[in-house]
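Long-time lurker, first post.

We've been arguing in lab meeting about whether flavin-adenine dinucleotide would sit comfortably in this protein at all. Half the group thinks yes, half thinks no, and nobody has a model to point at. So I'm putting the question to the forum: if I give you the sequence and the SMILES, can you give me back a predicted structure of the complex? Inputs are below. Any interpretation is welcome too.
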Amino acid sequence: MLREVLLHASRSAGLRSFVETAPGSRQVVRRYVPGTRPEDALRACRDLTGQGLTTTLDHLGEDTTEPEQARAVRDAYVTVLRLLSDAGLTQGGRVEVSVKLSAVGQALGEDGEKIALENARAICEAAAAAGTTVTLDMEDHTTTDSTLFVLRELRRDFPWVGAVLQAYLYRTEGDCKDLAGEGSRVRLCKGAYKEPPSVAYQSASDVDRSYVRCLSVLMAGQGYPMVASHDPRIIDIAGALAVRHRRTPADHEYQMLYGIRPDEQRRLAGDGETVRVYVPYGEEWYGYLMRRLAERPANVAFFLRSLVSRG
Ligand SMILES: Cc1cc2nc3c(=O)[nH]c(=O)nc-3n(C[C@H](O)[C@H](O)[C@H](O)COP(=O)(O)OP(=O)(O)OC[C@H]3O[C@@H](n4cnc5c(N)ncnc54)[C@H](O)[C@@H]3O)c2cc1C
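Top reply:
Settle the argument with this. Predicted structure of the protein with flavin-adenine dinucleotide, as tokens:
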């Protein structure tokens, strides 16, 4: 129930403006978002790299409504990739970027998909020049087909472009089969949006079972599975599947979000696993923050107290 309210709130313009201007918001945001400027992102990536972790950088933004805004997001990615490259952080894909297609124009009417494809292509060119990769985030189910189409188009020129699949969707086991081939980078997550029973499992246990079925397909395949979860049981099962399929830390990785279970991120890396931290930065943190609170209702009381505090 609370999860649904928070996911609904993530799309509410009125609440957004209240939360963004509330005195205590920044304090909560800082736990999940290292800052608003490219330099903040760079600092976080450098710090995590120093801890033996790899990272994927997300310039926050979604649901872009103007073509100029989509171009600005594209340019922000190109700039940050250049900064990361100049700082020597992108070698071997140690720091890569994650892109939401809705931020680069996917929702701009009839031409949206084409605009998003062209902007994503420019980001891929900048990533190639920096010696690193791009992963396309996955948003709500109405965008899945379009995002997978853009992925296929981009992979013709940039075969290393990765995709995200969400275990809560009924279709995902089939998508995993389609994307389990050689060179295919797939991040598997549970899914963060509010989806109807017509397309998605509703109970946590059904989502977890689907996750394990999907991961089994990816681990048995020829691609590069990226296990995006903080769930200890999922992480244990991923480890067992990796052993069963004779995978090494060079052909799969674990991924977690910035600020969530940082000790576990370091423990896995210390055990020799490849661990990538998803680092969001930028002014548009509202929708991202609401989805993180929806995953962890225990944080909501802390959040509400912070909102009305002066901090
Ligand atoms: C690298 C990465 C990229 C992602 N990309 C996408 C994407 O493109 N599209 C998409 O729909 N979703 C994405 N997600 C979000 C994902 O779908 C889930 O909503 C999120 O990861 C929570 O699911 P979980 O697997 O961690 O398991 P859960 O069952 O939600 O959590 C397991 C445990 O992790 C800890 N935990 C989880 N969330 C939080 C939190 N917010 N605060 C504190 N502790 C927490 C708790 O200890 C909890 O018990 C991504 C997640 C990761 C890690």
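For your lab meeting: The pocket of flavin-adenine dinucleotide is lined by residues 137-138, 164, 166, 187, 189-193, 228-231, 255-257, 260-261, 278, 292, 295-296, 299 (CB under 6 Å). The beta strands are 54-59, 95-99, 134-136, 162-166, 185-189, 224-228, 253-257, 275-281. Whichever side wins, do check it experimentally.
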